[in-house]
Amino acid sequence: MTQASVSNSIRSVTIAINELMFKEYIKFPALESEREMLKREFFDYSGFPGVIDAFDCTHVAIVAPQNDGKHLEKNYVNRKNFHSRNVQLVCDMHMQIMSISARFPGCTHDAYIWKMSLLRGWFSDNSSRLKNTWLLGDSGYPLEPWLMTPLTETSLEEENYNYRHRLGRNIIERCNGVLKGRFRCLLKERVLHYTPTIAGMIVNACAVLHNMCMRDVYHITYDTLSEDDMPFNTGLPACEGRNASRIRDRIIPML
Fold first, then answer.
1. What is the pLDDT of residue 196?
2. What digits encode the pLDDT tens for the residues 71-113?
3. Based on the number of CB atoms within 10 Å of its own CB, is 231 exposed (0-12), middle (13-18) or buried (19 or more)?
4. 110 Cβ contact list (under 8 Å, min separation 6)
5. Mean pLDDT for the stretch of residues 149-174
6. Of the four listed, 78, 131, 141, 153, which is most buried by Cβ atoms within 10 Å?
7. What contacts 161, CB < 8 A, 6 or more positions away?
8. Secondary structure of residue 232 in the 3-state scheme
């Protein structure tokens, strides 16, 4: 086959996966019983209570886009000085991707992607009934009632909090490694020669296929909530720091 035929086939399959399979395989647990199961699995592994998922961003290299009015080439140059999509991944203890956002250019800060994500909007809107339920993120994210971040300066007791936090967050690093190892087109050395829009859809398609593989391994099924079912809330507060700090202070003695 010619390169053009291969590229057209990849584009067609990618669009089909995004339109027909994405909502089925990339979902966030909607039932309390499912979230409690995830909490138990995270606690058994890391000793950190209340955690259902860990998340982080990773860069997927793309060819420099043309300045066409919709995409500005300079916006896709990331802090490591190559063109990319900055992709937010959220996964559980089985490295099952529960949420993905591949729609932001490489220059976008991780914290901004989280602030604008549908998942954060859902947590904010449901915070009153999500008791003792949070995600783990690194120090690049703001501390929030539903997002626990590490401490920068620690006592001996607080260092155990950071250790448990690192142990729990390790799963998203492993997930990112497995995803890129399985689909090597996502590696920095394998630049995606597609428009930013198609490149983002390729990332989504790889996440769908990754989840299919992981479900075959762990036989996982969820009655779940798709990101498309979550209200998009752009009027969120920047950070509920005081309340979040009280929550973190309450967790520290438990570890």
1. 95
2. 899 999 999 999 999 999 999 999 999 999 999 999 999 999 9
3. exposed
4. 56, 57, 86, 88, 140, 141
5. 91
6. 141
7. 150, 151, 154, 248, 251, 252, 255
8. coil
Tell me the two tokens of residue 124.
């904010």
Round to whole Å and give the CA distance between 89 and 9.
Answer: 26
Interatomic CA distance for residues 98 and 12, integer angstroms: 24
- Spatial CA neighbour of 222 closest among 50, 99, 47: 99
The residue whose two tokens read 């008791």 is 131
Rounded-to-integer distance, Cα 20 and Cα 163, Å: 41
Percent of the chain with pLDDT over 70: 90
pLDDT for 218: 55
Tracing tokens 């779940």 back to the chain, one arrives at 224
Average pLDDT for residues 111-129, to the nearest whole number? Answer: 92
Token pair 């729609």: residue: 103
